[in-house]
Design brief:
The chain is of the alpha/beta class. It has 14 helices and six strands. It folds into two domains: 136 residues, Glutaredoxin (3-Layer(aba) Sandwich); 219 residues, no CATH class. The longest helix is centred in the last third of the chain and has 32 residues.
Length: 375
Amino acid sequence: MKSLCLSALRALLVVSLLSSGAYSFYVITNSDCPGCEDRLRAVKANFPGSSFVEYELTLNETRTRFNEIDTIIGEAYLPMPLIGVFREGELIAVVGGGQSQEDWETILNSTNEGVPLYVENSMRRAEYIKTIADPESVARLEELFTSKHMEDGATGPRYLILPLTVAAAIDAVNPCAISVLLVMLTFVFYGVERGAVLRTGLSFCAAVFITYYLIGLGLVRVFAQVLYVRYATVAFAIILGAIRIAEFFLGERRHLPGAFIREITRRLEKVTDPRTAFAAGFVTAALIMPCSSAPYFLALDLISERSTTLVGYALIGYYNLIIVAPLLAITVMIHVLGVKTMDLKLRMIEGRRWINLLLGLGLVALGLLVLAGLT
């Protein structure tokens, strides 16, 4: 009987604690995740008298907010919803995932010196992970959870120009695309007429720009929805960069499958006018994406995190203008200056080993800078 009374009293105290209205909750959640929304509704049911401020993870500003919180906490995985629990304006806990009523009692009665982090484990119970004790880190977490809008600081769109320019410059010196353009213009130069070089070259460049731009529009939406995509893109960039560096010492390897090369060559042999050049440019851009995907993925990840939708579209356009700049320059050199395509090919073959080294070093450096949050 005594045990039953104690259990009833304990339950009454829990209910009183949870419904007191003394707590404020700042929540990062994802409306595209039904499970996340169910967990958040359960939390609201446990705290009927408390205030809730929600940030939608699909918004760029919230992704920036979440990424900085994640960096401060330093954990590989933070489940949704991610909740900052405040009492009398002070952050007392960070909670990830769904928690039971009993778990919440444990969390709220914690006596840790600092801000404890609790994460839902495989048994769907609150698991204590660590305590954030550094005063500066705690203050920044409080600011990140409660600020209505993120400060522009070093994460605003204008700060993207330099890293995007570097990434695009690495991408623009793309041996695959330049080689394809030279082959195509050789066919046109000797098979049709020199006057057709400018028209077909411009058409080819336009197709490459449009194709890359449309691919970017699609991927930037995907990146905005996927958590921790930065780590995958950085790893991909560093791996490809290391391969380029290795090619400097070991010799170049083929990057495109033989079937792709044959398909591109077949398309190029049929180029006789701007219309067929546009088709060749579209096919080429789609097939050579593996050659340039690493810097483009890094750029799209940065754009998805740190810009609004309209600004992001403009930045993707800016990136791709840099991409096609060398192709446009080659077209003009052949048409206006009469530079022979064979001379350009030989120069590129001679310098390709060093190009690979510079591309590799640039990719690795850019990947590490993005990972460190310095861009």
